[in-house]
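User: For a benchmark we're assembling, each entry needs the component sequences followed by a predicted structure for the full assembly. Here are entry 17's components. Please fill in the structure.
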Amino acid sequence: GQQLNQSPQSMFIQEGEDVSMNCTSSSIFNTWLWYKQDPGEGPVLLIALYKAGELTSNGRLTAQFGITRKDSFLNISASIPSDVGIYFCAGRILSGYALNFGKGTSLLVTP
Amino acid sequence: ETGVTQTPRHLVMGMTNKKSLKCEQHLGHNAMYWYKQSAKKPLELMFVYNFKEQTENNSVPSRFSPECPNSSHLFLHLHTLQPEDSALYLCASSQDRGRVHEQYFGPGTRLTVT
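Assistant: Structure for entry 17:
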């Protein structure tokens, strides 16, 4: 599959801070997805992006589909302790029936 | 029960054991997936079933054997596993394989091979 580079690998921040993470690929994707995984649970979809340049929000989360179609970022504003978890990006190529996942960004938030 | 459920949630097995993982979805979906999640690695797609037909086998060793008796149930039969097979095994489902970007994940089975 296509390799996705997700960074940073981990983040340790204080409550109230903003967070930014991104994903890059050597290939063009037509769909970018961002998931969150809590300990002991499966990934849950946060935001789906379908068009280059698209900027989509879900509460305090905002994600963008890069213009080159090879990257995406996720921002979390005013972080709270329940934001703790692992965030994954995933991409899908135009003719594909599978998703390619990043390695995840582990987020820790201290009160 | 709603969504995607997996049993057992935890499993410890010896290398000579035979065990099975079960996944059930209550979403009316027609595609089901098995993934392997290991620490510090991307999710690895193992198998895909679409309308009960296997459409993808991602070079998975034969000690892993999937079974999809109907669109709601998916099994992963395990036999003669190796310690490096220890991981979180996630099941997912979507309306069909064309809607893979709309898949829902189960909570996973944490497998430890001793």
